Structures are given as structure tokens and as C-alpha cells.
Amino acid sequence: RPISHGVLFFAIWLAGAVGFLLWHGVQYGIFRRRALAEAQPLEDGQELLQQAAADLQLKAMPHVAVSPAVQGPMLMGFAKPVVLLPQRFYGQQELTLILRHELVHYKLHDLWYKLLLLIANAIHWFNPLVWLMVRQANRDVEQVCDAFVVRNQDLEYRKAYSMTILQTMANQRGVALSTYLSKQAQSSKQRFAAILYPKRVKKGIAALLAVA
Hints:
The chain is of the alpha+beta class. It has helices at about 5-35, 45-50, 90-105, 110-125, 130-150, 155-170, 190-195, 205-210; strands at about 40, 65, 75, 80-85. The longest helix has about 35 residues, at about 5-35. The protein is globular.
């Protein structure tokens, strides 16, 4: 029997969606295995995490380790989340800010949001508007995290946090399903402006945006 156009289009869509998920899944699996295989626990890591987690009210804490396989700080893992740091020297304040940033990602369940975005992207792999939406949504995840970290903080704190973010940006694009921070994936100018000079949104506008 001749194959109908509907069946043909469905087969093409399914092949694209499966191929998209396999590509990212294999990339993630290889990177995660290599990063964890070379990882070493951070000295006084749990104590530093406790300091960075002040007032975050976390029921559990991810592990923190140093791995030569990563270029910048990142959070990865769903069942056993871990904060991975590159092999470089961090000052006390810089390290505390980095860990707080990743702990906020952990608190806000951002890895699960990224998984949802990845699935949406796989389903709509043929739609360039969805690719743009996912790209912007990933930026929004970072900006929400930034806003949470600098909430109720003075300008000096926000300046220190901005410098830390700038110095920890990696040159390479990160793997999916992680909070890897790459220069290519961020709109730095807008991001730092939002950190240094946050704008208050009126409740009516915020409610309208939430409904939209």
C-alpha cells in the first residue's frame, strides 16, 4: 500500500525528535561520566556550602567537587546533584558567591525546568520560534537566579556578584541539563544591568505577565 502523507510526516517528525533527544542525551552522559570520573571533593566543601546556603532553607544539599573536565562552575544531576568547579583558585568571597548562585539554581529546581525546555524543543524541533523561545527561557532562568541572589543586597554586593559572574563565564558552550555558564549563551550587558540596577515591577504588571 502507498504510504500516506500523514504517516510520512509523522515518521519524519518522530525521527527528528528521537534524534534530538539522543544527541543531547549521549552528550550529557559522556560529559557527566568524564566530569565525575575526574572529580575530587572540594576541601571544606560542605562547610562552604553551609555558609553559602544561609537563609535559603534547603532541606538537602548537593555535593561539591573540583573537576578538570569543566571550564566553569555548574550544577548537574537529578538524583544526586553535584556542584562542579574547575581547577582554579577562588577567593573566599568569590567562592561563596559562586556556591550561592548554584544553590539558588538547586532551590528553584532549574535543572527540571531545563529538562522541560529540552523536551519541548525536541517535540518542536522543526519550529525555529521554539528554538528562540528555549534560548530566551534559558536566559530567563539565569536572570531569575541572579535576582534571587542579590535580593535585598546593597550595590557593593551586587558589584562583587557581577564581577564573579563575569570571571566565571566559560568560553565553550555548556552541555544540556546543567547550569553551565557560557559567554555565547548569555546576553551579558542586559544581565549585568539587571543585577546592578534591578527594576521594581508593579504588582499589576507582574500579574498580567504571569497570566500571559
